[in-house]
Design brief:
seven-stranded parallel sheet, Rossmann fold, three-stranded antiparallel sheet
């Protein structure tokens, strides 16, 4: 994994936006389309707001979700709620954002439906990592970690919500993985991610196409080694 350390979370957000914009321009020039998958959590919100001001070929961009909580439309727990708010400044038509269908009664059928909507290969997937080593909604000890025959699956309850998530096969086919990791509370887990520790879910994501943008607080333990 390539790792870049920046002064603080604001700089990480700006650099992340620049990386996504550059990837979008390259993908559209090469293939006419840019397929982007975005994770939830607070870390990417500033990056997505910055992305709205970058030079991006927006008409050719399609945004998918890496994971989503099973919750009603508009619920503040929904990743989609914050994703849309953060991208409000970007000229994206509603049909360019592809929400995970988590509101129906048959969630297994919904996961299969979303898998059919996905591109064969994502141009870029943004990921974060939790202090427990989870990424996407691939959480420690959950059966979803073993899913190898589907691109979208359901987790068990985690922090009081079930989740729909991309699985390792979908993540590992991506042309690029962009990790954003900020804050002193992520310092210990960043060492394990950087070292490819497969005992944590994040450590099982393929590293050779991955780049991690981190702030100095998160990188503190790495810089001491």
């Amino acid at each position: 994994m390539k790792l870049e350390v920046f002064a603080d979370a604001q700089v990480v957000a700006r650099r992340g936006a620049e990386r996504i914009a550059a990837a979008a321009r390259a993908a559209v020039a090469a293939r006419g389309r840019f397929a982007l998958a975005l994770s939830g959590g607070r870390t990417p919100w500033a990056m997505l707001r910055a992305l709205a001001g970058e030079d991006v070929p927006w008409p050719a961009v399609h945004v998918f979700q890496v994971d989503e909580r099973i919750a009603p439309a508009g619920d503040p727990d929904r990743n989609l709620t914050n994703l849309r708010a953060s991208l409000m400044g970007a000229p994206l038509a509603p049909e360019q954002i592809h929400p995970m269908p988590v509101e129906g009664a048959d969630l297994e059928a919904a996961a299969r439906e979303y898998a059919r909507m996905l591109p064969p290969v994502f141009d870029l997937i943004h990921l974060g990592v939790g202090t427990d080593g989870h990424t996407a909604s691939l959480v420690p000890g959950d059966a979803v970690l073993q899913v190898a025959d589907r691109d979208v699956a359901l987790s068990g309850p985690y922090q009081e919500r079930r989740r729909m998530t991309l699985t390792y096969p979908a993540l590992d086919r991506a042309r690029q993985i962009l990790w954003l990791v900020t804050g002193a509370d992520k310092a210990a887990i960043l060492v394990r991610l950087h070292d490819g520790d497969r005992s944590i879910p994040a450590g099982r994501v393929r590293a050779e196409r991955a780049r991690a943008l981190v702030d100095r607080a998160a990188a503190a333990a790495l810089e001491r080694t």
